[in-house]
Amino acid sequence: MRFSLSLMLLTMVIAACSSNETVGRSLGTPSNDVPSAAEGGGDAVTNTAAIGRPAIEDPRPATAFNGRVVPRVATNAQEAAALFTEVQAGLRIDDQDPEVYGDLGHTEQLVIRQLGRNEDWIEPFRASLSAADLALADLHLTARRELNLLHASAGEPSPDIPAWTIIEPEPLETLVGHYKRAGEASGIDWRVLAGINLIETRMGRIRGLSSSGAQGPMQFLPTTWEEVSDGGDINDPSDAIDGAARYLVRRGALDDIRQGLFGYNNSDNYVNAVLAYAELLELDERTIRGFYNWEVYVGTAAGTLWLPVGYLSPEPTPAIEYARENPWALTLG
After folding, report:
1. In angstroms, how far is the first alpha carbon of the chain from the final one?
2. Is 50 within 8 Å of 324 (Cβ atoms)?
3. Which of 41, 61, 293, 326 could cross-link to 9 by cystine, CB 3.0-4.6 Å?
4. pLDDT tens across 118-132, in order?
């Protein structure tokens, strides 16, 4: 049975959408050596009024075309704190059903994004948390703030959505094994590799090119991949994570991790976000259960849109069309 958090289900009209939806465009971050895919466009929202909302809401929970329930978003700082507290408690419980962790992670992601949009919520939100949860929340907020600044520097959101396929990532235990093996072989902290993978492609969910031509779960330009691939496959998670570790070593990360990360993406905001996520994992490794279940969101001129697993977009299509056909995709409003 699908798990549901209290205060988590948003009532809205269920939108019918076929699984062979074909919409999209390739997006990326500013001109960097290894552009980020998953964070393309940030949280800027404009023109949502053109899409509209139903006058009467359906009492049933909305679902995406792949059957995932749309989590309820908080309406104030106190609700955000209650959701965050319940999420952290759930993530600390071992051996839960994968769907439970899936709903917990998605809810966590939306809470943090909402706080990034509503800065006046932050202090009352923080005041409502335990000391343990506050330490986690502050690092989440740091990363979100840095990524928002990164995307603000990229200019206006695109009118299109990415030409990507969104796929299931490898099992979490497998990915953690890749990170730790690559870390042991290279000397790079495995948590840094996990932070990069999270930002770049939501741990491998995005299959497609960035606007700069970067590809694979760690988003390498083909020319850079030739330097660090060691004969591997750019789209294979294990090979790509190994390549990222070798690349960081080449860019001086063993002496200065910030220097190495800046070589990966020449933005201090990017570096700060990766290190905040790595510190979260150091503080509590179980945090990765949430990260692993963060969904793909992309900022467009039609709003910040959810692209669930099963999304397929072989060519560019206006984002407003996707939003009209899939109103649940505007999870954040």
Report:
1. 27
2. no
3. 61
4. 999 999 999 999 999
